[in-house]
Amino acid sequence: MKRRNFLRASVIGAGSLALPFTLWEGTALAAPAQNAPSPYGPLQPADANGILLPAGFTSQIVARSGQTVPGTSLTWHSAPDGGACFADGSGWIYVSNSEINPGGGASAIRFNSSGTATSASRILSGTRQNCAGGKTPWNTWLSCEEVSRGFVYETFPFGGTAVQRPAMGRFKHEAAAADPVRQVVYLTEDESNGRFYRFVPSTWGNLSSGTLQVMVAGSGTSGSFTWANVPDPDGSPTATRSQVSGSKSFNGGEGCHYAADTVWFTTKGDNRVWQLNLANSTYELAYDDSLVSPGSPPLTGVDNVTGSAGGDLYVAEDGGNMEICMITPNDQISVFLRINGQSSSEITGPAFNPAGNRLYFSSQRGTSGSSSGGITYCVTGPFRP
Fold first, then answer.
1. What is the DSSP pairing of strand 347-352 with strand 130-135?
2. Which of 27, 206, 361, 371 is most exposed by smallest CB count within 10 Å?
3. Residue 353 DSSP SS3
C-alpha cells in the first residue's frame, strides 16, 4: 500500500472550495488509517444536548423538524440530511436536504457573523428523498435524489429557482463534490453494486449539458484507474452502473469530498473510505474498519464526509455509536463527538462555516427515531487551523 501525502487546505472567500495550501509535515503512516488518541483529547461527559465533546467545544441546537427555526418564519423540514455552508458577507448560509419521499427538497438558514439565524427559506420542494449532495464554486447546492433513476437538482441558496440537471445522470444519487481544477463533479451511487462517476460539463459553471463518465479499475483496493463515457446517462432500460464493462463496483456509495487533487468517498456497505489521487490517477483505502489496529474500529456505518481547513476528514456515522470520527493527515483516526440517546438515528450533513470554527450537522431522526424528530446542531470550538 502506498503511503498517503495529504495537502492542507484553506477555505477562502464566498463559495470557494478547499484548495491546496502546503504539504503536511511529518512522517505519514501507511494507509489505511489506524487508531490513535484524538488531537483534541478525550471526550467529556455529555452536555445538556446529549453530546459528548472534547474540552473547549460547545454545542447548540439550531433547528428541530416540524418547528419554526428560531429567529425566522420557516418550519424546519423532516429527516435533515446532507448539508453545506456558503459564505455570505460576514455571515454564512447552511443548506440542508430533506430525505423524505415524497416531499424531499432542501432548506437554507442564513446566519450573521455571530452565528445567529436571521432568516431561512425553502430552496427546493416537491422532489424525492434528497439525501446528500454537494456545493459548487459558483455558490449553488446540488441536491441529489436517493431513488432509482433519481435526479440531481441545482439549487440557489442566495435566491433563484431550482433546476433539474438530467445530464448528470439518472441513478440512485447520493453525494457530489466539485473539482475546480479538472472542472468536473464527482458523484456517488447508493447501490450495493454502485459506481463512482464524474460529470464533465460542456462549460464549467453550467451543468445543463456535458458528459457522464464512470470509474474503470480492477477489483482490488488499490491501483490505477481511468474514466469511460456512460453511453446512456438516462439509465433506461439499462442502469448506468451496468453500461460500461470494467467499471468498478462499490458497496453503497455515500459521502464525497474534494480537496487538493484528492477526492474521498465512503461506502457504507463495507465501512470503507476511499481515496482517489487525481494527480496520478491512482486509488487506495483511506480507512477500512476490518484493518484497524490496535483495538476496535471507531468508525462504522460510514456516511457523510467533510473536510476541515487543516486537512482533517470528518466522517459521520449512520448507526455505529452515533459518532463523528476524524481522520488526520497522518492517517490516524479517532472519535471527535458522540450523541447519546439517539441510537435509532444517524448523523448527517457535517459542514464547516467559512471561518472553520463551527461545525454544523444533524441527527436525522433525533430522540424519537422518526423522520419528524430531526435535530440540527452546531458545535463551536478551537478546530485545528
1. unpaired
2. 27
3. coil
- How many C-alpha atoms does 75 have within 13 Å on its Cβ side? 5
User: For the chain, percent helix, then strand, then coil, each to nearest 5?
Assistant: 5, 50, 50
CB of 65 closer than 8 Å to CB of 369: no
Longest Cα separation, the chain: 54
How far apart CA 66 and CA 290 sit, in angstroms, is: 39
pTM of the predicted structure, to 2 decimals: 0.93
Nearest CA among 37, 28, 34 for reference residue 7: 28
| pLDDT mean values, one per 10 residues, the chain (385 residues) | 36 34 33 94 98 98 98 98 98 98 97 98 98 98 98 98 98 98 98 98 98 98 98 98 98 98 98 98 98 94 96 96 97 98 97 98 98 98 96
Q: Domains of the chain by range and CATH?
A: 33-160+257-380 (2.120.10)
Nearest partner of 135 among 108, 114, 117, 112, judged by Cα: 108
Give phi and psi for 71, each to the nearest 5.
Answer: 85, 0
Nearest to 157 by CA among 108, 92, 91, 104: 108
